[in-house]
Design a protein that fits this description.
Radius of gyration: 23 Å
CATH architecture of the largest domain: 3-Layer(aba) Sandwich
CATH class of the largest domain: Alpha Beta
Shape: elongated
Largest sheet: 6 strands, mixed
Number of strands: 22
Strand content: 15-25%
Strand order of the largest sheet: 1-2-6-3-7-21
Number of helices: 10
Number of domains: 2
Structural class: alpha+beta
């Protein structure tokens, strides 16, 4: 079986590569994925998917097979923006291949996984490897803005009901089975504005925030550590203040926190740690968890709180064991089974809904969101082979 799969994946590599180049060239920031959804739908239909739909959230889903065992493979199809263009050596929206590496925004995070999934769907039908499985390839939207919300919609609204999910975020062709959770918080201080020529008449909210910022920087050393997931972390990603004018004392200051949660940490414990900081107490600062209610590209608003659970699928679970067997069949060696440093849609599939979830994807996550966003073209071939072989081996477990 593996020889036939690898030969077919190698044969289809040029088409898969060209499809990925089209996806990179189709700009798709969170909330603006309509054009890339249409492009993926067209490719799914052209390679012979049995059914292609776009759900109310705006996700594109393609089905092959009609068996009772339902497997889903996930790739988010939105990207972050380019950022400072001076940091790029090339146009981020014009894919460029050099020395077997394809460059462009979304190459690693994570349109490569999407392209490989579509061509795996093609081979699952051509090679008659579906057996008793139905396989859904999901191009998920708005993940960069709010990871997992797309799958909250899919699962709560019963679009599909998979028994296992493969996340195709970049793993550098290794097998992953979890990652830390995260939450987004704000801390706000209040002051009293007055004319900047006489600051002693007011209370500067920025000065009150200064000791809080120093406390946040120091607090991470005491966070909980998990043997597999690692230690929780926190970083300040935004600072802003308000005042009547630039000639006035600031009457408020707000910091935005990206808090990564390992096992043993909770929303409540993370809030309590912040509220216990001396600067927060002295400054009478408020701590709040953020909410997300931005419309999708279809116009749907599907609100959620920005709390995303940590998750791990046990190494002995059939999905992990099947993944390891597929890896060995393709590469001739046992995989390094690890976890992501960043967050994925697994926060919903596994973290919220307890669906066994594993990860395998082309490209290296270190290039995600960077001006060197890239994917080795040969990774596409291996990823297509992995996704094609997985249903057969999983259904035997």
């Amino acid at each position: 079986m593996f020889d036939a799969i690898k030969q077919a994946a190698a044969r289809d590599l040029p088409r898969c590569r060209d499809f990925l180049a089209d996806l990179i060239a189709t700009k798709s920031l969170s909330g603006g994925e309509g054009a890339v959804v249409a492009r993926i739908r067209k490719e799914m239909e052209s390679v012979g998917f049995d059914e292609v739909i776009v759900d109310g959230f705006g996700n594109v889903l393609g089905r092959v097979g009609s068996g009772p065992r339902v497997i889903a493979m996930d790739a988010h199809i939105d990207t972050v923006d380019a950022g400072d263009m001076d940091l790029w050596d090339r146009d981020p929206w014009e894919p460029m291949e050099k020395d077997g590496i394809l460059f462009g925004r979304g190459a690693s995070d994570q349109k490569g996984g999407m392209a490989a999934m579509v061509y795996a769907g093609k081979l699952l039908k051509e090679l008659d490897l579906l057996g008793d499985c139905t396989v859904w390839m999901v191009g998920a939207v708005q993940e960069e803005d709010c990871d997992g919300l797309c799958w909250q919609y899919i699962l709560r609204e019963k679009v599909i009901a998979p028994e296992v999910v493969i996340i195709t975020e970049p793993t550098n062709l290794q097998l992953y089975r979890g990652h830390r959770g995260r939450m987004e918080l704000e801390v706000e201080t209040k002051g009293l504005s007055c004319h900047g020529s006489a600051p002693e008449r007011g209370v500067n909210a920025v000065y009150k925030m200064a000791s809080i910022i120093a406390g946040v920087e120091e607090m991470g050393a005491g966070f909980t550590a998990d043997p597999f997931l690692g230690q929780g972390t926190v970083t300040i990603s935004d600072v802003r203040s308000t005042s009547p004018s630039l000639c006035a004392v600031a009457d408020s200051c707000t910091i935005h926190l990206d808090r990564r949660l390992t096992f043993g940490e909770t929303e409540a414990s993370a809030i309590a740690e912040l509220e216990a900081l001396a600067g927060v107490k002295k400054g009478e600062a408020s701590v709040r968890v953020l909410e997300y209610d931005t419309p999708t590209h279809t116009g749907l608003v599907y609100p959620t709180r920005k709390v995303y659970p940590a998750w791990v699928t046990a190494e002995e679970h059939p999905s992990v064991q099947a993944g390891a067997a597929v890896y060995e069949g393709i590469f001739g060696a046992a995989p390094d089974i690890s976890r992501w440093v960043f967050s994925t849609n697994g926060v919903a599939t596994a973290g919220m809904f307890d669906i066994p979830t594993i990860g395998f994807g082309p490209a290296n996550e270190k290039y995600a969101h960077s001006p060197e966003d890239q994917i080795p073209v040969r990774h596409l071939e291996s990823a297509v082979a992995f996704y094609t072989a997985f249903p057969s081996l999983y259904s035997q477990k």
